[in-house]
Amino acid sequence: MECKQRLKWLMLAMICPLIAGAPSSMSKSDNSCPKENLNITGGSFVLSNGYSHGSLLKYICPYKYYPTVQSRLCQGEQWNPKPKIRKPAECKKITCPNPRVFINGEVIPFKDKYYVNDTTTYSCHSDYMFRGSAVRVCKPNGKWSGSTPICGRDSDHCPDPGVPPGSGREGNIFNIDDKVTYRCERPLTLIGSKVRVCQDGGQWSGTEPQCYADFTYDTAEEASEAFSSSLKSNLAVSQQFEQDDQQGKRISLDQGGKLDIYIAVDASDSIEPEDFENAKTTIKLLIEKISYYPVSPNYEILIFATDVTPIIQMRNFKLNKNERSLERIFEDLDKFTYDSKGGKTGTNIAKVYSEIYESMQIEKVNNAAAFNETQHIIILFTDGQANMGGNPKPKVDQIKHLVTKNDPSQDKKLVVKVKQYVLHPKYNITAKKHMGIQEYYEFDVALIQLEKPVKMTTNARPICIPCTKETNAALKLSESEGTCRKHEEILMSNELVEAAFTSDMDTDNSPKTIKRITIKLGKYRDACVEDAKKAKGINVENAREVVTDNFLCSGGTEPETDDVACKGESGGATYLNKKGRVIQVNQARRLALAYVYAPDPYTQAIRALDEHYGQPRQLALKELRAIMEMPAIRIGDGRGLDQYSLQALVGLLQSMGSEGLAELNCGSHVERLLEKLPHEQFCQFKRCMSSSTAGPLSYNLLDFSNWLQQEARCQPRRERTPQPVLTH
């Protein structure tokens, strides 16, 4: 495999720092560089222009190997870097960063080095909870598959941030304002946040660090996924244009704004043709992934070297219907080859920013109001090896000034009309009146479809629901990371979870009040539930008849006094503040159960859900795969059984018609899940099913889910925790 030179790419949201390189030394010379000592042990090399000035030598190694020196540039009769006689270039086996830094658990196998296709498995010591990937594989790009495995108690304010492979961490206390500091083993380079701080919302600042070797690179898929994850927080806005030929694109929220994306790709001589093609592939993957979201952003794509060549211009994209299809974008991008730039091969970053600035000026002159409502994204692919045309910073400052705008807040009442609603068929406020419970709200949930989408403003903002693509974006997770289980880990990993609700009891002219509460989980749950018997109108012996597993529990004076909801506020959302977004808790599970039991209004309900969730089939299958990859449950782990529950997944599968039914009735799914249970519980399930079914494999995921619920209730209370936001 030819070891790819990783492009250093730069992304700007609104305005971003720029690379200001050294002046280009592109002057021609007839002097050539020496031919001696250029060979590489175990590989070969290619030259862009022989041994003449400006020629780039690139080393090539077999698959699973990398060159100790990636390339050399002929400058002034010398190669840079200069060949070393005593230490010639060679092809070495690709390794992945050391996974043995894993703490509070075990990693198998224990080796000095881990090469491509080596597999590692992870497990936790007793009393620790596992998060991340239980099995990881060393990939040809020098990175581990999956996500960082973490074993933590999660008893502090923030969850254990883990120790990524190849790194070391200082700091083992994770309360508010506590810091953890990372470093990489030599000679690895730290990518991400060196220092992370535990924030009020229970999250860590910055991004999880990674340790890269010189030969580590991002695949086109990884790069596009990274861009997609970074952009997702902007993808809740709608666009002016929505085309029938762009399958899978829908407008779910009209926020009265647009998203304009400018993409520039370096095609100068210092960029190899293969790297240029990889950049184009990354762009296409990124645009395709964005197309799956309920928006259709506007694009401008530029190729630059000494001069700038527009592939797609923003004005044409907005005015010309044919310009806006994915097929047309990809076709135009493919037409431009590496050699299309001609003989002008410098790197003029300043000029490409000048072109973008002029394009943005045209948009502002054309419609200033729309321009001020637009979010502007600039993505630049470059290696930064040379920079002609002067310092690009003045142009960036001009762009910054151009997009700076004042957006005074306006407090307006929203009047919305309901097109239809689907009430939960089990909702009955008097269902337990005979038990001494005057008002019963377990199934107090409905699906509401509006006649027109709500226009978002600074005073009307959406609340994200877990297990949806919108929440995935808010949590800045990639598509591969974004499972319901991952949402649960991030949102509900601690035993005390800070949350809030909005009080509506103030006057019309005063702002709504944010009331603070603490959700009690784990060892705090039982006492919180028992306190429910003290509430007015409650006269029961068993508090769990009032606060069932479908409810979260808050209130009391420990660890601090919670705010109390007034009459009329109980229908509002309880939410967490994560990464500047508010995310509703518990609602996703109730929504899933809502359409599990809906017999006749199924069609309307699933259509409404489909508008919010995207494609339930993809969601269900992703959750199914995540469950199949879970580690085994240990004996007496009532918490594990609770989290292993499959109710919501079963609900999703039941909502999918014949496709879901096939997955639901797949006996092999149950057999794989049974392998994760302790032997005693495995036998208990078999005995239970043999007494109630006709054949040994006639049970399905629904049977298994129901049995799990019963088995979890039998666990000692000290081992149990409440069901998470969305169970599996």
Quick overview:
The protein is an alpha+beta fold.
Describe this protein's structure:
With 728 residues, the protein is α+β, with helices and mostly antiparallel strands. The chain folds into three domains: 9-17 and 218-403, von Willebrand factor, type A domain (Rossmann fold, 3-Layer(aba) Sandwich), CATH 3.40.50; 105-212, Complement Module, domain 1; 418-719, Thrombin, subunit H (Beta Barrel), CATH 2.40.10. It has a five-stranded mixed beta sheet with strand order 1-21-18-19-20. α1 (220-231) crosses α2 (273-291), α5 packs parallel to α7 (393-403) and α14 (638-644) packs antiparallel against α19. The chain is globular, with a radius of gyration of 29 Å. Mean pLDDT is 73; it is low at 1-29, 232-257, 406-414, 505-511, 587-615 and 716-728. This is C3/C5 convertase. GO terms for molecular function: serine-type endopeptidase activity. It is found in: Cell surface; Secreted.
Topology readout:
Layout: E1 9-13, E2 44-47, E3 56-60, E4 65-67, E5 71-75, E6 78-80, E7 91-93, E8 105-108, E9 119-124, E10 129-131, E11 135-137, E12 150-152, E13 167-170, E14 179-184, E15 189-191, E16 195-197, E17 210-212, H1 220-231, E18 258-266, H2 273-291, E19 298-304, E20 308-312, H3 314-319, H4 326-335, H5 349-366, H6 368-372, E21 374-381, H7 393-403, E22 418-423, E23 446-450, H8 469-474, H9 484-491, E24 496-503, E25 513-520, H10 525-530, E26 575-578, E27 581-584, H11 587-596, H12 602-613, H13 616-628, H14 638-644, H15 647-654, H16 658-664, H17 667-674, H18 679-690, H19 701-713
Parallel strand pairs: 18-19, 18-21
Antiparallel strand pairs: 1-21, 2-3, 3-5, 4-7, 5-6, 8-9, 9-11, 10-12, 13-14, 14-16, 15-17, 19-20, 22-23, 24-25, 26-27
